[in-house]
Amino acid sequence: MIRFYDIIKSVLRLVLENMAGLKTRKLYTEYKKRLIKTWNEIAPRYHRRWAKDGVGPFKSTDEIIKLAQIRHGDTVLDVACGTGAVTKKILSKIGPQGRVVGIDSSQTAIYIAKNYVKNRSADFIIADAECIHFNEKFDKVTCQYALFFFPDSQKVLRNIKRCMKNNGTLALAVHGNGNTVPFFSSIVDVVTKFIPDYLPKGAPSLDRFGTIQELKREAAKAGFSNIKIMQYQYKYSPGTFAEYWKNYLRYLATPLKQKICELEKKDLKQMKEEIRTKTLPFTKKDGRIVFPWKVLILVAKKP
Ligand SMILES: C[S@@+](CC[C@H](N)C(=O)[O-])C[C@H]1O[C@@H](n2cnc3c(N)ncnc32)[C@H](O)[C@@H]1O
């Protein structure tokens, strides 16, 4: 009798676990669809404002290339290549015998990357990093500012590992956490207080790999070895507070902008005041804000 109940209990637990798994998967899928839409909208602005000229934290692009030790003739995979900022620099290292493949889930980003990079040694593919599969194995893999976007980051890291040669190198950059990247947190911490559903359900926390311990743990869990993490301290000035706020709205995806526009006038005013207060420690005498911006770059091997 007891065994019968035990069996029923185990079956029920399995059913419930499966249902929870399905629910999470559904949230992930919805989040990924929204992310593709967002990047299709903002990729041109992102390319102009940050990626093309290596502005502020994007100075990390040169560091990633150095740390990955990319050599003549290497085959390199650039995961979530976006508009091709890293891919283009990889090309200058691999020479005509090498090859680089950039993958990204946004078709607009890939379109820009193709036009920006324009080189016979580079191929671009629209693909979800969770699902890529290649017959060849790559010497090096790069991934700049994307790991935190993947809802199932473990699945992506394991997939990346499968795409690499044994002893191949992964070089990956992420932003620091909220405290160390006030450019993001000054606004988002306050906005989410006024608009609790500002970041939609199912969206992973974007600073969850923003410390050495968190990033190291994630890479080790996926089976990478020889993990080293370097920290960089960059600076970025978004101008005065008025310019910071104006550009935040200008570069924002439509659904988030709508939520801010729907706020009552008095709430919007109070919200802006709270954001302004957060920026004061970084505001210079001439009114310009200069934010510090921490970046972590991980280098690891496929054992
Ligand atoms: C901040 S951008 C970084 C782009 C590029 N690596 C760079 O440094 O300029 C993040 C990129 O991740 C891409 N992305 C997000 N989730 C993805 C996924 N599941 N598979 C592939 N690309 C993804 C977005 O489309 C976007 O282009």
UniProtKB/TrEMBL annotation:
Which InterPro entries does the protein's record reference?
Methyltranfer_dom, SAM-dependent_MTases_sf
Does Methyltransferase count among this protein's keywords?
yes
Question: Where's the Methyltransferase domain?
Answer: 72-175
A single Gene Ontology MF term assigned here is: methyltransferase activity
Q: Name one Pfam family in it.
A: Methyltransf_31
Top-rank lineage group of the source organism = Archaea
Sorted alphabetically, the keyword list is: Methyltransferase, Transferase
Q: GO biological process: what's one of them? A: methylation
Keyword Lyase found: no
Protein name, UniProt field: Methyltransferase type 11
To which species is this protein native? Candidatus Nitrosotenuis uzonensis
